[in-house]
Amino acid sequence: MENGKKRESSVEFSRFAKELKKNAWKIALAGIVAGVVAYPLISMMSSKYVSTATVLIKAQADNVSPFPQVDGFDSTRSGYYETQYALMHSRIVLEKAVRDMKLDENPEFTGEKAGARGADSNESRQLRMEQALKTLAKNLNVIGIRTTNLASITYESTSPQVAADIANGVAQAFINYTVEQKRLKVEQARELNFEKMEEIQTSIAKQKDEMDNYLKNAGLLTFRGIDGFETEQLSIVTNRLADATQRRVAAESVYNEVNGGGKSIESVISLPSVSNHAQIQDLRIALIQAQRTLSEQRKVYGPKKSRHFKSRGRCSVDPKPDWTSIG
């Protein structure tokens, strides 16, 4: 404080500027020396490329079948997605990816020199597989994207094409593995269903034979058994239905002929369906027999005897009979 006023602090840059000008050649020389020393090291370093493949882990797989899901899981558990991430980096998935992409035959992954492949024995193949798995797992990384059902598979390589092929190949190997596991579970469920169906069919056949034997011993069925009994009952019902249908059609035909034949009795009687009726035929036969009896009694007793009058009474016919009572 000077004279009750605050003195502002000031920074003098002039001294720094003078020092920079004075030592400028030293600074430039140091930069040149550092660049010359670092250039060989930088030129010796190879470029690294990172490729990423994204995989969607569905909480519930699509079901294109009309049957319920065979593969059941609870995606709400905290360890479900972590298990899927670990499975992508597991040996079984990586080994499948190595075989699919033939990385065990690639010298960059097996550590062998090009053209220096040894004997193709089981032990050498296993060693190449182990080396390829180590190289693949060393540069592979699986990361789950927070708050999503996505997982990113990244691979680092000196070649951008190799990095992209490896990332996509591991993702495809994981997808193929999960699909294969679901297929195996469906096959197991189908075999189990077939076994259950065979057991049920055997049980049904056994119960049917026992019922057939019991009913046969009790004399409740014919020699054809349960199937023959059911067939016989069906045949009886079918015959009854056919008879009823035939009678209905015949009655409907008569009804239509009577309605279309006119209103007079003579026109109705002249119809074939009416004149050939069984009751009409019986009435005609009875009338003929009564007329024959009347003729014989007239010859024997004469027209004034009581028996002759009884026969005439039987033969007397109303010129307009009530044909509606005939049916």
UniProtKB/TrEMBL annotation:
<dbReference type="InterPro" id="IPR003856">
    <property type="entry name" value="LPS_length_determ_N"/>
</dbReference>
<feature type="compositionally biased region" description="Basic residues">
    <location>
        <begin position="301"/>
        <end position="313"/>
    </location>
</feature>
<protein>
    <submittedName>
        <fullName>Capsular polysaccharide synthesis enzyme CpsD, exopolysaccharide synthesis</fullName>
    </submittedName>
</protein>
<feature type="region of interest" description="Disordered">
    <location>
        <begin position="105"/>
        <end position="124"/>
    </location>
</feature>
<keyword id="KW-0472">Membrane</keyword>
<dbReference type="GO" id="GO:0005886">
    <property type="term" value="C:plasma membrane"/>
</dbReference>
<feature type="transmembrane region" description="Helical">
    <location>
        <begin position="24"/>
        <end position="42"/>
    </location>
</feature>
<keyword id="KW-1003">Cell membrane</keyword>
<dbReference type="Pfam" id="PF02706">
    <property type="entry name" value="Wzz"/>
</dbReference>
<keyword id="KW-0812">Transmembrane</keyword>
<feature type="region of interest" description="Disordered">
    <location>
        <begin position="299"/>
        <end position="327"/>
    </location>
</feature>
<feature type="domain" description="Polysaccharide chain length determinant N-terminal">
    <location>
        <begin position="12"/>
        <end position="100"/>
    </location>
</feature>
<keyword id="KW-1133">Transmembrane helix</keyword>
<dbReference type="GO" id="GO:0004713">
    <property type="term" value="F:protein tyrosine kinase activity"/>
</dbReference>
<dbReference type="InterPro" id="IPR050445">
    <property type="entry name" value="Bact_polysacc_biosynth/exp"/>
</dbReference>
